[in-house]
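Researcher: Batch entry, complex prediction.
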Amino acid sequence: MTDWPLLTLLVWLPIVGGVVVLGVGDKSPANARRLALIISAITFALSIPLWTGFDTSTAAMQFEEMHPWISALNINYHLGVDGISMPLILLTTFITVLVVIAGWTVIQYRVAQYMAAFLFLEGVMVGTFAALDAALFYIMFEAMLIPMFIIIGVWGGPNRVYATIKFFLYTFLGSVLMLVSLIYLYSKSGSFEILDYHALPLALEPQIFIFLSFLLAFAVKVPMWPVHTWLPDAHVEAPTGGSVILAAIMLKIGGYGFLRFSLPITPDASMTLDWLIILMSLVAVVYIGFVALVQQDMKKLIAYSSISHMGFATLGIFIIFMIFRNTGNYDGASMAVEGAMVQMISHGFISAAMFLCVGVVYDRVHSREISAYGGVVNTMPIFAAFFVLFAMANAGLPGTSGFVGEFLVILASFKANFWIAFLAALTLILGAAYTLWMVKRVIFGEVANDNVAKLEDINSREILFLTLLTASVLLVGLWPAPLLEVMEVTVENLVQHSAASKLGPSL
Amino acid sequence: MESLLLAIPLAPLLGAIIAGLFGKIIGRAGAHTVTILGVAIAFFLSAYVFKVVAIDGAEAINHSVYTWLESGGIKFEVGFLVDNLTALMMVVVTFVSLMVHIYTIGYMHDDPGYQRFFSYIALFTFSMLMLVMANNFLQLFFGWEAVGLVSYLLIGFWWKKPTAIFANLKAFLVNRVGDFGFLLGIAAVLMYTGSMDYAEVFAKAPSLQNETMSIFPNTSWSVMTVICILLFIGAMGKSAQMPLHVWLPDSMEGPTPISALIHAATMVTAGIFMVARMSPLFELSTTALSFVMVIGALTAFLMGLVGIVQNDIKRVVAYSTLSQLGYMTVALGASAYAAGVFHLMTHAFFKALLFLAAGSVIIAMHHEQDIRKMGGLKKYMPITYITSLIGSLALIGFPGFAGFFSKDSIIEAVHHSTIPGSTLAYWAVLSGVFVTAFYSFRMFFLVFHGKERMDEHTREHLHETPWVVTGPLIALAIPSVLAGFLIDPIVVGDFFKGAIHVDQIHDSLHDVREHFHGAFQFILHGVTQPPFFLAMGGLFSAWFIYLRKPEIADWAAEKFSWLHKLLLNKYWLDDFNQAVFAKGARGIGQALWSGGDRVLIDGLVVNGSAKVIGWVAGVVRHVQSGYLYHYTFAMIIGLIILLGWFVWRV
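Model: Structure tokens for the complex:
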């Protein structure tokens, strides 16, 4: 088993599988569904050895695969994982299974293409996390846009054209400058190996330009304020499955990018400009928290809540330099980065669950407006129990995964500065306010209208995917130790690496 | 012993899970059997632990159960610390909980959510036990928020009532404001001590006494003061101290058993327990103690006053709870932690009793809660009547009853406290005694004595409630009388030795200890002191005004209409919060959304740049007209300009 090219399988099995599903075509949607489920389930099963076979004592890349690809440019097909990318790959393969199940009966139009798009997306996302060659990474990173573009454009809501164009242009424009930086780094180092870039000495000035280009690319993906406005529109128009993948995994690629590229390649620029990211993150937590409060559309509300929660991830990643400046050591720094990582994983579960919950009622009532609901608990008690649980997780209740990341990041940022922790901790109030106010208006109360009165409680298929997410949310909330153990050495190594200046000769 | 300790919280949890997930299958009887069994196991095991630790004097138990996570070299664990303080809390919590479980069988008899209710209260018992048994700040926060969750679920138990789902949201959010401070306090503890473990933190704390931090530029604050005040903000939320008390009266929208269990006897005392547990920290900051004392004093007095004008039977008891929590908080501020925890215990018994008795009245009155529509219930409900009388006497501190010992110790301690604010606090708690007696017996007389003011139909059906209701009343009435005699070990003795730390200079209970010569002598001394006369004065005034001359009440309401209005509107704090915080937050959100996201970012930058590109393209497009003579003409003009430029240059 260990000799298998696991990562290659994880990238290409879903992609090839997607082609096969396309081949089955719309003539037999039932077979397309079944095949997609089997492929995604096998992919998930194959990703489990990544966890069980993972060596937690080293920060080096594992499960590496390296083949020359375009030797003229020294581009390699180089895959590998460490404690940062491995959990994200598992998250990807897990969530994809849920998305396939969630689209089972809901999607009736072009089923095969729908399933194929998600399988492609899965392969490309795994590829993005596993790529150790910058060119390969960039290709995967951009390739992700295509299936998502199609998913929103074909199965989306009425305003999907505006949303897709906005989504595409935003993310594409953001990443073009990253390509320039990668080419610059290639010209300096003569390779596209990301790990070579980590070791490459660079003067502060080029570091800053590279940092800003990365920032633009990844900030759009996360998304960070003020380049976040594509997200609510994309979510609102996307079909449920699209929203789930978008929120649960695609946003994480932004955070992952900061960890894989910005911090280790441009540590001095990160240290110089950390205030900018911290500021943007705090705006995300506070400003977006207030904005979420007044949303009338459930999906928009959850989208804004995502931005706010991802603010913790970026805050945790870039607070490390301030912790050093304030306390003189890096003790709290790895806690901050680990908090950011846990926050990303947890947000993957919770946002997926929230969007799936909205999908459940949307499929029945065909409205996302909060005001179209009220008293859902009276007709859908089982669903209401799930919804309240996920809402509590979204509000960061201890015992759920939503608490762990926020807790660690707040504890760590207190070491940097009281007021940063103060502003970040406001999420305790704001997060509870916007989430539970929605719960109050949607779930509780008398039956509000005929649509709600006619609602049928969730079926076993829906119970299945919500239960899987419940288990994940509670497991990470009650016992996050294994998750932290996996990333500990990698994160500590990363923090040490980022702490060491790598200023090289200037231009 | 360790697995036994683990069984204590897990038994109710198991009950809660079974009743919650399989309620339909096991049915009503199944649900209450399994949860009551779980809580009963927890109670008996707690009693056993109490015997071993507190009576036989075994070493305090401190061990970890599992490592929640490890990050940055710091271990976050789940573990138990059981010393005398914890053991006492465990017994109180599980006993009251058990009584409430039994009572619920009668109270929720016809409710469609029967199984769900039992699942919730058992879950609450689990959470509360985790809170009091914690040996570290992480688990404390876990339990802290978990009881908040259950409280949220239970206040909104009748989710069809708009007032209930308003109240539960409000309760959760106000508590979150407290938790916000609490979490920052925990972060400060971690930063300065590098640990989450109580024992390690307490050991490290004295070395931080002179440490300062700068919160605002150019200021330097004592680290211990900052930590303690932040932690206390958490207690203010959970234990409903002003100005974070606003959620508690509204929480009465929940079913009465949980008002007794959660919003009177146990959960709301979590803040008191927490501060007592943190005594090694609070003792290091006199400023923080003063802050605690003043907040408590204001709550004790001002909330008692509001209790006088309430007409809903549960709300009277709720304001009484607020006021009594204020008393406990004052005791903490005076470093009389033992007295505070002692009052916590006696209050748990008699307040749970009063709430359950109120519930018994509510059942008999067919869910009428307005005391103006009651009266003369004495002859219909003898057990409820007697137990209510016992509860009320305990509450007002009638000599010999439980509340007398605990409240008198607090007043004495405050009297001898020398920290800033203690004079104000003393007068507040002293005059509070009159207020307490007045509102308690106003309610008591209006409910049980005087004219029968209910309608004919209700009167005909009036009768004593079934034994599942009256049983717990009697069971709670016993400690409401007898628990006071524990003053000897708990307040005077060194029961809390090792669990609670009091600095020599703050020791305000010193005098109580010095002059204590047995409980009976304490009573004899008590009847010569101002609190006794004030309590009797309050009792007598209530009797005179509400049974003899009701017109006085109307006259006073008119004469002091400003005061009456002030109290009726609860100092306008609710309106203030609603207008400023609730509306303000929505206003800010709306402004940021429409102004920031939609106009500035989307309108100006995103769509704006798209429009600019479109506009430029639209203009430039006209150049490509497709007519040959246009292009020729442009070339000639260009040529002339270029040539002219060269000629000019030369």
